[in-house]
Amino acid sequence: MKVLVVGNGGREHALAWKLLKSQQVEQVVCVPGNGGTASLERCQNLPLAVDDFEGMSRYALENGISLVVVGPEVPLAMGITDYLQSQGLMVFGPGKAGAQIEASKAWAKALMQEAWIPTAKAAVFTEAAAAKSYVKAQGIPIVVKADGLAAGKGVIVAGTLEQAESAIDAIFQGQFGSAGNFVVVEECLMGEEVSVLALTDGLTIRPLLPAQDHKRIGDGDTGENTGGMGAYAPAPIATPELMSRVQTEVLERAIACLRSRGIDYRGVLYAGLMIAPDGDLKVLEFNCRFGDPETQVILPLLDTPLEELILACVQQRLGEMPPIAWKQGAAATVVAASGGYPGAYEKGKVITGIPEAEAAGVTVFHAGTKLNQQQQIATDGGRVLNVTAIGKDFPQAIAQAYTGIKSLEFEGIYYRKDIGHRVLK
Question: What is the mean pLDDT of residues 248-275?
Answer without folding.
Answer: 98
